[in-house]
Design goal:
275 residues; alpha+beta; Ku70, Chain: A, Domain 2; 7-stranded mixed barrel; two-stranded antiparallel ribbon; 5 helices; 27% strand
Amino acid sequence: MEHRSSRPVWTGSINFGLVTIPVHLYTAIREKNIHFRSLHDQDQVPLKMKLVCPAHDNKEVHREHIVKGFEIEKDRYVIVRQDELEAVAPKATRAIEIQDFVDLDEIDPLFFDRPYYVAPKPEGAKPYKLLLDAMVKKKKVGIARIVMHNKEYLAALRPLDGALCLETMHFSDEVVSAEHVAPLHFKAKVDDRELKIAEQLIDSLATDFDPTKYHDEYREQVLELVEKKAKGEKVVVRPPTEERAAKGADLIAALEASLARTRTQNRPARRRKSA
């Protein structure tokens, strides 16, 4: 699975027992965020940020006088030197150390962070395929540790479309339990009629997942706006519209209206499909 169009972000090996598999990691996600620069409104020159000290009349502080401080309480810091950080940094190994094998459905998606494709080097093709086939047959996911960019990550190594995918994960103390979110009205009572209509609404919207169906509409509209302005076209700004939220007393009416609208919207598609 060698990617000719991209460069590896990490090179090392998978350690599987006494078996070593030389591999490359390739990013599996290329986020398409919109970035704006802050410009001076008079001459449209990009502005620069300066670090200043408010205790010295906002005097600019040069880099040689900047140190790292960890805030242990309000306005109280512990100074940490760079050599001290390097002394406790994770050992810069070049190995994906598989520690356990678990079932994928035992891992809540909350724990997943960022995916990478794992590609074997030519000399690692056979053990790579062996590990992949064994994991597919046993339906297991490897839990491993990996050091990238001087940071240690927990990771899940799993089969995906005939290859291995490594997903960095959050540690357990980073995941917030739903119990800490307030207020959560888990004790609210729902009658059978409301539940039945809600189930029908879910059934009417149920379909196979097609990722190409969904788009970042805001990003597309912003890029369209930028393109029009770059061409000198006039842009008409429409005021935002707000939809009135349904009140609790109107829950049944809102469910029934939603179900009726969904059925109406789906009817032409079903006719076309049957035709």
